[in-house]
């Protein structure tokens, strides 16, 4: 991560600072601050109702913040001279006129943004939707709608991509395509911010994560670092016919021993070599000795425990 | 700004809505022209009193003006509906997000909608008028009145008709920004246009009777559809204000709804 100071050459960094949105009595987003770096895919995670969509919409000037603000490359969204050439956003899959064809949907946007008309064809080609170009939007499958949304976001060849739940409704092939596509964009040096609640997908896709719950920041950082920060979560799975002997051998150390309910032991507080050494010294026979790292899902559920749900 | 207007016109062109409304407008021209032609032939052959046409209103130029603006009554409603749909479609189909992402300066978006709407109103007027002129000139010539296009009364009717088309489309955009619910806006506006005028006329008649002052009737010009009628009606009397009063009222409504629409749209959260 950076040292927090915006660098003058960095025109694709997203900085959210003190962002707050109050709807009547509900504090949807509460003094939220985080940064998103170029060249990386950043997962924006939170339980339903955490304020993800509201945050993204405030970032894009669609919703007015109660307090605080957000900048993209140092400028607020409405200050950007050619917004679509800087930022592409996919906010909801069903945002095109149902009676309009896919290609015309894109041409309308090109006209408004002053982009050449050919960009519409190129963007459709990019997402593999050319065969459906002249089909009306109402005939699109959910996956095709998502692709059209991405095509719309790519019209201006932006350096910053913001996507709200892009994997929703995609089949496994579509999800894999999306993963490759977004990773490719990040590799090209673009900023990619993706909100999702599909944690296993995020673990495959994201370099960094920003986790929020109840409108507040819970954790931000590289995926490995966030998972590693839950060190107590690293456990050693052991399978042995002499469980009692091994438990006795470990009882003087910092280790905690639990059964996983399926005939194996889950040992926390010590690493695998320590367990192996103790077993060897005690003459205990081992059939399995594996380190179990917590995955993003477990970390997420622990971090957001009790903060999810309806407010 | 010209990019935005182009985009708005493209939005209209790439859906079938305007096509249906154009067909509706064409049918209403056909019906209205047939009726007006019958009315003109009855009136000009001396039977105008049956329909309340006496004096100037029974003259050939007045009847020609009526013929050349056939289909205006429903045509104005159709262009108003197009104006409404230009805005409410954005919310109904959730394209407002896309639109405001491409153009975060929302005032520009609404202003470009207003300009596109006026252009569209102009196009509707042009096509309507060409049809009316062809049919009307043929009808009048066949009945030995000549085309009467040199008469100021006829030219005036055509020009005011143009003004009415442009203002009602703009008014539609204004209404759309005030009532963003598609069905709500369309039904409200149609009912107010079609039925509201009769109800308002009746109310003012009652009021005039109660106050024992027929001049009160002319105040129904505050109602947009009534103002539109006043604007295109020649002459002025105790119960009928001058045409420019109607024009001012109508322009006033268009300006106020446009400005309020812009202010509301600027503040609205799009989610």
Descriptive overview:
The complex is a heterodimer of chains A (311) and B (271). By secondary structure, chain A is of the alpha/beta class. Chain A folds into 2 domains: 14-228, P-loop containing nucleotide triphosphate hydrolases (Rossmann fold), CATH 3.40.50; 235-292, 2-Layer Sandwich (Alpha-Beta Plaits), CATH 3.30.70. Helix content of chain A is 33%, strand content 25%. Chain A contains 11 helices and 13 strands. Chain A has a 6-stranded mixed β-sheet, sandwiched between helices. In chain A, strands 11-12-10-13 form a 4-stranded antiparallel β-sheet, covered by helices on one side. The model of chain A is unreliable at 1-9 (pLDDT under 50). Chain B has one domain (2-267). The two termini of chain B are 25 Å apart. Chain B contains 11 helices and no strands. Classes of the chains: A alpha/beta (311), B mainly alpha (271). Chain A binds chain B through residues 53-54, 57, 60-64, 77-78, 80, 83-84, 87, 89, 91-92, 94-101, 104, 107-109, 111-114, 152, and chain B through 3-4, 6-7, 10-11, 14-17, 89, 93-95, 97-105, 267, 269-271. Chain A: Keywords: ATP-binding, Nucleotide-binding, Transport. Chain A: It holds the Pfam family ABC_tran. Chain A: This is ABC transporter ATP-binding protein. Chain A: It comes from Micromonospora sediminimaris. Chain A: InterPro entries: AAA+_ATPase, ABC_transporter-like_ATP-bd, ABC_transporter-like_CS, P-loop_NTPase.
Give a short synopsis of this structure.
Chain B: Keywords: Membrane, Transmembrane, Transmembrane helix. Chain A has 11 helices and 13 strands. With 311 residues, chain A is of the alpha/beta class.
């Amino acid at each position: 991560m950076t040292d927090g100071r915006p660098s003058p050459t960095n025109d694709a960094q997203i900085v959210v600072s003190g962002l707050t949105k109050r709807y009547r009595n509900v504090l949807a987003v509460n003094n939220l601050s985080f940064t998103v770096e170029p060249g990386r895919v950043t997962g924006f995670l939170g339980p339903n109702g955490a304020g993800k969509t509201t945050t993204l919409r405030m970032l894009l000037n669609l919703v007015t913040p109660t307090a605080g603000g957000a900048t993209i490359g140092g400028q607020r969204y409405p200050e950007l001279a050619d917004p679509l050439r800087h930022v592409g956003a996919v906010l909801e899959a069903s945002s095109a006129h149902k009676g309009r064809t896919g290609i015309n949907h894109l041409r309308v946007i090109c006209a408004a943004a002053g982009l050449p008309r050919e960009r519409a064809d190129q963007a459709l080609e990019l997402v593999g939707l050319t065969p459906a170009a002249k089909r009306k939007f109402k005939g699109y499958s959910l996956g095709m709608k998502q692709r059209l949304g991405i095509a719309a976001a790519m019209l201006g060849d932006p350096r910053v991509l913001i996507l709200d739940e892009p994997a929703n409704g995609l089949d496994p092939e579509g999800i894999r395509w999306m993963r490759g596509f977004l990773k490719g964009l990040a590799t090209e040096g673009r900023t990619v911010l993706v909100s999702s609640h599909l944690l296993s997908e995020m673990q495959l896709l994201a370099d960094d994560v920003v986790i929020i719950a109840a409108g507040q920041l819970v954790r931000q950082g590289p995926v490995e670092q966030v998972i590693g920060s839950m060190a107590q979560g690293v456990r050693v799975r052991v399978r042995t016919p002499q469980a009692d002997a091994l438990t006795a051998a470990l009882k003087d150390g910092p280790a905690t021993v639990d059964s996983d309910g399926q005939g194996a032991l889950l040992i926390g507080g010590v690493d695998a070599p320590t367990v192996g050494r103790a077993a060897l010294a005690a003459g205990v026979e081992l059939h399995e000795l594996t380190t179990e790292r917590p995955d993003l899902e477990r970390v997420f559920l622990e971090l957001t425990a009790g903060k999810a749900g309806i407010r | 700004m010209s990019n935005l207007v182009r985009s708005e016109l493209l939005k209209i062109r790439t859906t079938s809505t305007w096509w249906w409304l154009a067909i509706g407008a064409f049918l209403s021209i056909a019906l209205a022209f047939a009726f007006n032609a019958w009315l003109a032939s009855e009136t000009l052959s001396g039977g105008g009193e049956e329909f309340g046409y006496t004096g100037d209103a029974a003259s050939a130029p007045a009847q020609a003006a009526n013929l050349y603006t056939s289909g205006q009554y429903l045509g104005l409603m159709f262009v108003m509906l197009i104006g409404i749909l230009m805005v409410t479609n954005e919310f109904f189909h959730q394209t407002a997000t896309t639109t405001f992402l491409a153009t975060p300066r929302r005032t520009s978006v609404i202003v470009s909608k207003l300009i596109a709407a006026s252009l569209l109103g102009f196009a509707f007027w042009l096509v309507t008028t060409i049809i009316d002129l062809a049919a009307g000139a043929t009808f009048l010539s066949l009945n030995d009145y000549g085309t009467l296009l040199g008469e100021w009364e006829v030219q005036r009717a055509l020009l005011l008709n143009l003004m009415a088309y442009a203002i009602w489309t703009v008014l539609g955009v204004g209404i759309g920004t005030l009532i963003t619910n598609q069905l709500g806006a369309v039904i409200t506006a149609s009912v107010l246009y079609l039925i509201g005028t009769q109800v308002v006329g009746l109310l003012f008649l009652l009021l005039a009777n109660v106050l024992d002052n027929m001049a009160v009737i002319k105040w129904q010009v505050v109602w947009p559809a009534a103002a539109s009628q006043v604007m295109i009606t020649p002459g002025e009397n105790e119960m009928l204000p001058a045409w420019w009063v109607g024009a001012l009222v109508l322009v006033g409504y268009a300006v106020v709804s446009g400005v309020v629409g812009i202010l509301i749209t600027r503040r609205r959260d799009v989610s």
